[in-house]
Structure formats: structure tokens, C-alpha cells
Amino acid sequence: MAKLLLKNLYKRYENKKRKKGEALNAFAVNNFSLECEDGEFIGILGPSGCGKTTTLRMIAGLEDITDGEIIIGDTVVNNVAPHNRGIGLAFEDYALYPPLTVYENIAFNLRAKHVKNEIIKAEINRIAPLLKVDDLLHMKPGKLSGGQKQRVNIARAIVRKPQLLLLDEPMSHLDGKMRQVLRTEIKRLHNEIMCTTIIVTHDQLEAMSLVDKLAIMKDGELQQYGTPFEVYDNPVNEFVAGFIGEPPMNILTVEVQKKESSFFFKFQDANILIPVPQRFYSVVQDGMLVRLGVRPTDVLIVGEDSKGSDVSISVFENLGEERKISFRVGEGFLTLITSDDKRYKQGDIVKLEVKSEKTHLFDVKTGEKIIAQ
Amino acid sequence: MAKIELYNITKKFGNITALDNINFEVQDKEFFVLFGPAGAGKTTILKTIAGIEFPDKGEVRINDKNVNMVEPAKRDISMVFENYALYPHLTVYDNIASPMRSPLHKQDEETVKKEVHRVASMMKIDHLLDRLPSQVSNGQRQRTALGRCLVRDPNVFLMDEPIAHLDAKLRHFMRAELKEMQSEFDTTTIYVTHDYMEALSLGDRIAIINEGKILQIGTGDEVYLTPANEFVAKFMGEPEINIFDIELEDETQVKMLGQERSYTIEEDVAEVIKEGEHKNIRIGLRGNDIAFSFNKENEEYIKGQVYSVEPIGNKTILVVDVNGQLLRLIAPNDLQANIDDEIFVRIKMKKAMFFDGDDYKYIYRHNQNELLGVE
Q1: Which of A82, A274, B22, B160 allows an S-S link to B9, with CB 3.0 to 4.6 Å?
Q2: A300-318 mean pLDDT
Q3: C-beta of residue B165 within 8 angstroms of C-beta of residue B198
Q4: Is A136 left (phi over 0), alpha (psi -120 to 50) or beta?
């Protein structure tokens, strides 16, 4: 177990057939720095192509580093061979050895290191119950379900007592139910062994539910690093705001309008007015365009006698636990989620209010968060 | 405009029974959803209606007429595929016009123009007619594909997971788009999906299919609130419903979760269980139907341990271990709890569903008729 430090990490895949004068490839990972404490569970999250797997592969030593430093414990491992880095790896596909039993699969790495049989046995007996594979030890991989295979795969990674456990999309092959169960088990496992762990995933629910801290990447660059709640509640830019949360945050362009001494946000292409929260008064002006972000759970239908705007319902969806109501705004929707049981239909007029303390403003051009004074 | 009927449809591929005696009737202008896991037979049903697959047994009827021997092209059916299959080199206008230029449904250009404009304004894409599919947004592309189907005024729309390939975020948006346009279709639609939220959101009625059999047909409320069996209950909703055995002590008292004390089931439920002479009973509780507290607020609260805490943005999935039974609860997103903390849960008996422990079929729930709005 060890802490992990990534210092100004860069990765550029070289274009071997590059002609003279042609530009170099863009950085796949661009000035990425991260500090991960001993025993922490970190998630790297981002859309496909954002550089998250490249980062993981560089930590594992499977990919050269263009520039920067990787430090595991107190050692700079840039030039340490992968098998000497003390890393346990579990990939998306399990790559178990089909002719070997589960027991032998888990034992394989230890056998390669000539660990004594008794020790191997003791280790497997310790690990197997943690991952609930103790009943499967005599079976061959062909007989296992996807979820069981992934458990064996993870068991194989942690039996070596790695300093660092790396998980690359471990649940993306599994169906909904298996995912839910394995997610819970991985969370329990981490709590049990407290091994510093990094998981790479494109599934934000998976990432948020598991980790202590989340690193969100886009185009090779780190966007935000914080606890899941911080990232959800206080996103630093429009990308993070839109990426985290399901259903996604409403982010719509609004115009600031001044009426007497009060400011309002006016939605484009829709007759919805929302009072600007006091804390934004110093950063808005009449006629200014901003991107207004508000989560679907922070838009409310309020009683007849309240101040909100009258709006016609475009879509009402009853989704079992909750109901989703959407209002047409130009090419998009303003959407709200409620657990209220009341049923509406298309065309019903309701009064809308937005929880003003839960609104976010982003710059129309840069997408950066506009900070209230 | 048409009524579609499937009567005793059976289809085998080699030894595998893909469809096992499928029966249903879709009313004129109804939006009917076929919902089930991968491999359930949903797409095979769709293909059978389209005439691309031929049933071994049974009849497909369109407007009370057996169409088994009618060629696919002559059934007047319009299909929307997962990737919309727009012609990339044709403008939105020409894409929408294309069915009316095919040999089978040929129209004069004057009619084509009128129809394209009618459909385009209905789909709110009339300002995009000169653009290529690559130059319009995802939502507009979907509307173009639907518009292309609408110009023909077919008997029935068949849609095979039209938005399944999109990421979760876009799917939320496109689902709302589809639903908004639904009232404009005015055409019988059969829609295949494996996403329960799509099924609940879009379907006038939903048929739940597994292993080639129909398990239940009903409205969203019917299948969600009163699922025909445990499979249907588990397939709808996230997190998955909690179902476990309970022990019937007498007519109204049950024991559960290894507790000393007994719990009272609602009178109407007790009556149905008694009448049905059910011996083994299981209880089903969705994530919202179990309350929790970190103090034993009253004797109804049962002690357990926090097994896992999984925040997922706007809520937290809380897994509680009560005497070896794991329960998944929905909690607020700012919940502070650690693994192995002591916690107390309360079963909301008024919200519980009851299943038979022998055949896993649904029995009853409290106030069922009021919930479904039936007299």
C-alpha cells in the first residue's frame, strides 16, 4: 500500500509516418497532476478518448511517458519495469486461463514468483471469501458468469498484495443487476483491504458510488479533482456540470433582464423568467447572455399563488420511483424530476420556480464557472 | 391506421423456441411497447409483424385480416431502425421524400412537396430541409427519420430500440423528444426496448417478454405497481426491488428478517392471502418502501448494519445488512454513513407487494384498486 503522485504527466503518441513540417499529434494526456493518499479510492472519469486509460496504462508501466513523473510510495517509477512496480491490474476483459481452475488462476502470479504452496493456499483462503469466490475455486472459468469471472480477475490482482490496485472499466461487460452487486462488493473489498485503488470508467454512477475522490478528464486534461459530492454540487465548468449527474443538469443560454431594481434570467425561445439570486447581482448586467445551470431536482412546481412563471408542460414521464417533466426551450428542454405522485399531461400549465441557491452560471464563451461575489 | 393482432405465434430456430405462443392485440393508434432483456424475442416479434420472419404457428392479423401470406412490402409497415439509416448524401427534404419516390408508393412531385412540408412542420424541422443529415443535430436526425416514416401514412410503425445506442444523457433527451411527438404520430406504433424507463415513459401499454413468453401486458402503473411475478418486479426499477421470504404466523401476523416480534399486514392483503390459501409468502419492497434511521425510533425499527453507501448524484443507494439479508434503500445524496455503522430500518407495510413463495407469482398489495384507479 502506498500513495501515488502524478507530476505534470504528458503523453504524446508519435506519428511515425509524420512528414516534415506536419504538426505533431496533440497530447493524449496533457499536464496531468494528481495526488492520491495511501488507502484512497480514486476514480478517473471522462468520455471516451479523454486519456483516462492512457493515464492508467502509464501508471502500470504499459505505456511510455512523454514527460513528467510517476511516484509510487517514495520511488519514481518512470524507469521501473511494470512487474516491479507492485501493481495489481484488472482489466475489462478478464483474460483468465481457461484450462486452469479458479484456484490455479488466482495462484498463477504467485507460482510465477515461486511462492511456497502453503503460503499460496493461505493467501487464497484469505482473499477468496472477500470476493465471494470461495465456492468456485475448483471450477473452470468456462462455467462462470461474467460477474464471477470479474471477481476471480480482481482476486488474482489483489492476491499479490499490490501497493496499488488498478481497475480498468471492470464492470462494463456486465448487465445491470450484476453491476449493482459487484459495485457493492468492490466497495466492501476496498474498505476491507484499504489498498490504494484507481478505477477508470466512463460510467459516472459507478465512479461516484465507489470512490473517495474523482478526477474528471476531457481531451487529455484534468478538469476537476474532488469528492463526488463536491464535483456534483460545485462543478468548475460547464463540461463537468453537464457530465456529472443523471438525468443531466439543465444548462441553457439565458439573457439577463433588468426590471426596476431586480434582475431576471429570461430563457431564449421560451417565456420563462427566473429571478437572479442576490449573490450574482455584482456579476450580471442588463442584456448579458450567460449559461444557466440547474439540476432537474432543483426545479420545482409551485402553488398557484407563488411568484413563478406560468409554463406549459411539453412532456410528462412517469418513471416508477419518480416523474420527469420537461418544458420546451428552443431546441432543448428544461427538465425537472420529482418524487411527487401527482400526474400531469402534455399542455397542462404549471408555475415553475428554481431553487436559487442551487443555480450555477457559466461563461457563454469559455464555459468556465462565473463565481458569485 | 390499423389494429394489429398476434394469435398463438410460435417460432423456433432449430431446437430453440424463440417465440412461445405469443398473443396480443394492439389497438388502433396505440403506442405499444415490447420490453424484455436481450434475447427475450422482442425483435423476432417485430420481424414477424413486418413479415421478415415467418411464424411456425399462429397468425398475424392487420385490421382483422390474416397477413401471413402477404409480402413485407405489401403490409404497409414502416420501420425505424436503431441508426435511423438516413441517406447521407440526400438532404433532409429528399430523405423525407424518399418513400414517396419509391416504385411502390410513387406520388407526383406536387404531392411530395406538400407532404414533406406538412410532416416537416409537424416535426419542427421545416427550416432544415436543405441540410444534409450530417449538418443537423441528433434530435433533428431522429425527427427526420420519423418524418420519413410519417409521409407514407403506414398501417403501423415498428421501432426497434431507436435510441438504445445513445449515451445515457442523450437518451434522456431523445426519449422526451419522442414522447413530445407521440401525440402527432396518430399511427399504431410498436416499440421495442430493454430500458424500463423508456417502456414506462412511452408505452400506453407494455408487454413484458422473457424467453419467448409474454409475462404480463399492462399500463405502466399496472406493471410497475402490480407486477405479475418476481421477474417483472425485478426488471422494473433501479435499484432492484428487495424480495425475501416472510413467515405467516396467523392471518394478519408475519415474522421476518429474523426478528422476535411480529408485524401486522394490512387487512385487505391478509384477506387475499387467506382466500388464495397461499402457504409460503414473499414480500417485495422497492428502494423507497423501506425507511431508515440511525436511532431506534420505535419498536417497528429493525437493527442492521450499513453494508455499503453508494452516492449516485441526486440520491444515495444505501445497502443495509439485516441478519444476512441485504436491503437496497434510496437515501438522500447528503447522507453521512460509514460501512458497518449501526442502522435501523422500518418496513412500510402499506407499500409492500406480496408474492407466492412457490411459484413467485404476484398476490396482492394494500389498496391495489385505488392505486390503479379501478373501481
Answers
A1: B22
A2: 89
A3: no
A4: alpha
Q: Do A210 and B310 touch (CB under 8 A)?
A: yes
Supply the CATH number for residue B294's domain: 2.40.50.140
Do the chains contact at B180 and A188, CB–CB below 8 Å?
A: no
Q: Counting every residue, how long is chain A?
A: 373
Mean pLDDT of B22-36: 96
Cis peptide before A247 (omega within 30 of 0): yes
Q: Chain B contacts of A210, Cβ < 8 Å?
A: 310
pLDDT confidence bin for B1, thresholds 50/70/90: low
At residue B199, the 3 state secondary structure works out as: helix
CB–CB of A321 and B317 under 8 A? no
Range(s) of the domain holding residue B272: 240-372
Contact assignment for A321 to B288 by CB distance below 8 Å: yes
Q: How far is B142 from chain A (nearest CA, A)?
A: 13
Answer with the one of B216, B233, B250 that is the final residue of a domain: B233
Long-range CB pairs of B166-170 (<8 Å, 24+ gap) are B166/B138, B168/A246, B169/A242, B169/A246, B169/A247, B169/A248, B170/B138
0.95 surpassed by complex ipTM: no
Q: Do B239 and A180 touch (CB under 8 A)?
A: yes
Q: Which residues pair with B10 in a beta bridge?
A: B57
Query: Structure pTM?
Result: 0.89
Q: How far is B172 from chain A (nearest CA, A)?
A: 7
- In degrees and rounded to multiples of 5, residue A333 shows phi and psi of -130, 150
Would you call B339 and A244 a contact, using CB atoms and an 8 Å cutoff? no
- Yes or no, beta carbons of A335 and B183 under 8 Å apart: no
End-to-end CA distance of chain A: 43
Predicted local distance difference test score (pLDDT) of residue A2: 86
A–B CB contacts, 8 A cutoff, strictly below: 106
Classify B121 as helix, strand or coil.
Answer: helix
Looking at the complex, does the CB of residue B14 fall below 8 Å from at least one CB of chain A?
A: no
Topology of domain A251-362, CATH: OB fold (Dihydrolipoamide Acetyltransferase, E2P) (2.40.50)
Min distance A299 CA to chain B CA atoms (Å): 13
Segments of chain A assigned to CATH 3.40.50.300: 4-243
Q: Residue A176: list chain B partners with CB under 8 A.
A: 238
Nearest CB partner across the interface for A326, out of B176, B200, B326: B176
Residues of chain A contacting residue B201, judged by C-beta atoms under 8 Å apart: 317-319, 324
Tens digit of pLDDT for each residue in A15-38? 777 888 888 888 999 999 999 999
Answer yes or no: is pLDDT of B375 > 60: no
* Separation in Å, CA of A221 to nearest CA in chain B: 22
Give yes or no for a contact between A9 and A58, defined as CB atoms under 8 angstroms apart: yes
For residue B237, list chain A residues with Cβ-Cβ distance below 8 A.
320-321
Cβ neighbours of A337 in B, within 8 Å = 314
Q: In DSSP terms, which residues pair with A221 in a beta bridge? A: A218
- Chain A contact for B240 (CB, 8 A cutoff): yes
Q: Which DSSP letter does residue B39 get?
A: T
Number of domains in chain B: 2
